[in-house]
Amino acid sequence: MKKFLAMLMGLMLVFSLTACNSPEPAPAPEGEEGAETSDEMPMIGVTIYRFDDNFMSFVRRAIETKASGNAELILNDSQNNQATQNEQVDLMISRGVNALAINLVDPQAAASIISKAQAANLPVIFFNKEPNFADLNSYDQAWYVGTTSSESGIMQGQLAADAWKANPEWDKNGDGKIQYVLLKGEPGHPDAEARTQYVIEELISQGIEVEELELQTGMWDSIKGKELMDAWLAKHGDNIEFVIANNDAMALGAIQSLRAEGYFTGDKYMPVVGVDAIPDALEQIKEGIMLGTVLNDAKNQGAATFDLALNAAKGLDPLTDTDWTLDENKAVRVPYVPITLDNIEVAEEAYN
Ligand code: GAL
Ligand code: CA
């Protein structure tokens, strides 16, 4: 019942968002609420895999900021459902959008989105969830905006290794190994897979021995992160020496759980690292609680997504009048930056 209500509310949200735009391809009537309408402005159809993803809400905000006065946006919450997203794409195409900007629910669904775009001769910019290159390469009007996923894992590993070496007392059982627990993002998501692999490879390549106590998916979600950490603390207690999270939301959930167990008071400490550098995580770093994170630059990823979509919507080369560059995989890759207390202003600047 709860689920049904949530679904209904989600549908209503999509409806009310799209309802403030013209229902048909015909030019929107003047004086509509919410949407910035002009006959000259191109219309860009955007989907976000789910609106309640913390990091994606910052990417969404960056797209909206860039769009203001430059394009009419149709924004859709795909509610973590690929079938819903496919319908949203069909609807946007029928309403006459000039370009699509798609944050996939399922990275494997790129091919079906591409075939819809291709049939309508529309450009499509995928962002945040990287499609297979074979899919992207099957259509000359398809591009990707994101990051080099492995980079975030390597940086997180470096950050963890440096701190571990500087704090020998963190090796609570004195066996020279890090007994760690790892909160993984969504399985199959290129960021989650790469971060999970590379953070550990980096620790090992720094000469640190590791022992995995737990590795489970918290689906990028703070509440799930807390629940997993609760269970792991109940099971392993003080044997846990390090908490590695694929993103900050899950790291923050783990911190909540740790606080409830008395960590971060007196000399009871647990190093926790995340990825994204969302403002809530930066607060925890400033308070000396969270060890560090890796900046996932929402502002620039949103900006690049919009720039490419706007150019393509106008029939221009997607890089026209921008500083972005495409790699050999038709992707703009925004760099990550490791963040600790020492350079926290870099992250604050990126999220202001
Ligand atoms: C990642 C980000 C996660 C989550 C995910 C959604 O890049 O680090 O926090 O937002 O994208 O696809
Ligand atoms: Ca140890």
TrEMBL record:
InterPro entries: Bact_Solute-Bind_Prot2, MglB-like_PBP1, Peripla_BP_I, SBP_2_dom
Domain of life: Bacteria
Periplasmic binding protein domain sequence ranges: 44-315
Protein name: D-galactose/methyl-galactoside binding periplasmic protein MglB
Alphabetical UniProt keywords: Calcium, Metal-binding, Periplasm, Signal, Sugar transport, Transport
Predominant location: other
Signal peptide: 1-19
A Pfam entry, by short name: Peripla_BP_4
Organism encoding this protein: Acetoanaerobium pronyense
Subcellular location, record wording: Cell envelope
Assembly behavior: The ABC transporter complex is composed of one ATP-binding protein (MglA), two transmembrane proteins (MglC) and a solute-binding protein (MglB).
